[in-house]
Amino acid sequence: MTEPKFYGAGFPYKKIKPKDMPGKLIVLEGTDGVGRSTQIQMLRTWLENEGFAVSDTGLKRSPLTQPGLDAAKLGNTLSPLTMSLFYATDFADRLENQIIPALEAGFYVLSDRYFYSTIARDVVRGADPEWVRKLYGFALKPDVVFLLKADVQTLVKRVVAGRGFDHWESGMDIRCANNLYDSFCIYQSALIEQFAGLSEEFKFVDVDATRAPQVVHSDLKKKIESRILKKI
Amino acid sequence: MLKPNPYKGRLIVVEGIDGSGKSTQIDLLTKWLRKQGKPVYFSEWNSSELVKSTTRLGKSEKMFTPTTFSLLQSTDFAHRWENKILPMLKAGVIVLADRYAFTAFARDVARGVDPTWVRELYSFAVLPNLALYFRVPLDVAVNRILSSRAKIKYYEAGMDLGLSNDKPTSFKMFQQLVINQYDQMVSEFNFTVIDGSQSVETQQKEVRAAVQKVLATWEGMNLPNGTPSQKTAILTGGRHD
């Protein structure tokens, strides 16, 4: 991280000096089932082999909010608005207590999704696009964001081969259709569209994720080498 | 930013630091309005089921940062807003709130979050028709709290700010920071200031006069069939969630 920059006001009460953050923040974004976690595992192994300390994080992993958020998702009490704010709490907690300290300690932080995913989900659920962007004014700008891209049919194949269709991943809370499969296709298509817009706005590096995991990995490796490792 | 209330109902809120006497005043106001048969919904600044366990965890393990504290409180408020306050306002009810978004603005900014950011955060809600701000000298409020309660809690005392290792001292310093924020909001949000060092009756007289003015344009509540029901509806703000 050459100089830590925030999208908005950041954390005004927290004094962070640029030289205090020698680590790198690498984000993998993309829809459900696109292969983010597989790629993160492979990147972690590779970076550790290269001798870098690696830390990873992902949505909903804050020890503060995880139990409460899991419980809320089981009930009928979570609305698009409260979901948006609860996930922002999760993100803020991980950013302040995990990601920033790891960057300060010189770690490579691999983030499985960042706040862009929650923006995409919130907007698909009807949130005001401007409001959610301001909400994340405390977010740190990553060194690089890779967007793993795949079409809905590829996602369907992976979901079928994997853990099956999920209520939230199918957007059933907003009932895009009256059954999981159709709702999944409509919801994920809407997310893909959001991501395409976000990619331009936040300067993501797009990666074709319809290819075999090993091929995607080589591609990511090459891009990280040229964008980050060479610059050290 | 909060927008003006476009709904039929009226939103009246009380604000002020702990020990300013606002709860006593809103309680008297609630009873007075209900006695007149007006439909009143009372809302408190406390944890809903949605975030209760997370709030408890964060407080007991001292896990909060100013930002996560602010975000979790806004999650809680959003839940209350969507499930209680908003439907009541749409129905035409008089909503009385003991603390509102201004409490978050005052406390969160005192903790160091960005003032504009927290105001934007709450922009899903509306401005009240009347915001009564109970202003008391710091010592009066602090003594009321310190003498009436066995123990002030960690975040209540603002211990997370590291102002002082002594809880009562920290509490006092934190309350002063909160007062500074409230004072700045008087003109920003057009607060009606009530001098909380006056007698309870005198304050209540002022409160009722201000409320009466706001209710002059209130149409009352309409049931779905269109019959005005100002005389019959009695609503209670229980904790049914």
Folded structure, characterized:
The complex is a heterodimer of chains A (about 230) and B (about 240). Chain A is α/β, with parallel strands linked by helices. Chain A is about 50% helix and about 10% strand. In chain A, helix 1 (about 35-50) packs across helix 8 (about 215-225). Chain B is an alpha/beta fold and about 240 residues long. In chain B, helix 1 crosses helix 8 (about 200-215) and helix 4 packs across helix 7 (about 165-190). The interface of A and B includes residues 89 and 138 of A.
- What can be said about the biggest beta sheet of chain A? 5 strands, parallel
Question: Helical proportion of chain A?
Answer: 40-55%
**Poorly predicted regions of chain A:** none
What low-confidence regions of chain B span 5 or more consecutive residues with pLDDT below 50? 226-234, 236-241
**N-to-C terminal Cα separation of chain B, in Å?**
28 Å
Distance between the termini of chain A: 10 Å
The global form of chain A is globular
**Rg of chain A, nearest Å:** 17 Å
Order of adjacent strands in the largest pleated sheet of chain A: 2-3-1-4-5
Strand content of chain A: 5-15%
**Total beta strand runs of chain B:** 5
β-strand number of chain A: 5
Helix-residue proportion of chain B: 40-55%
The average pLDDT score of chain A comes to 94
Helix and strand content put the structural class of chain A at alpha/beta
- Cα-atom radius of gyration of chain B: 18 Å
Number of helix segments of chain B? 8
Instruction: Name the shape of chain B in a single word.
Output: globular
Sketch the topology of chain A as an H/E string, one letter per element: EHEHHEHHEHHEH
Quaternary structure state of the chains depicted: heterodimer
Query: What is the typical, i.e. mean, pLDDT of chain B?
Result: 91
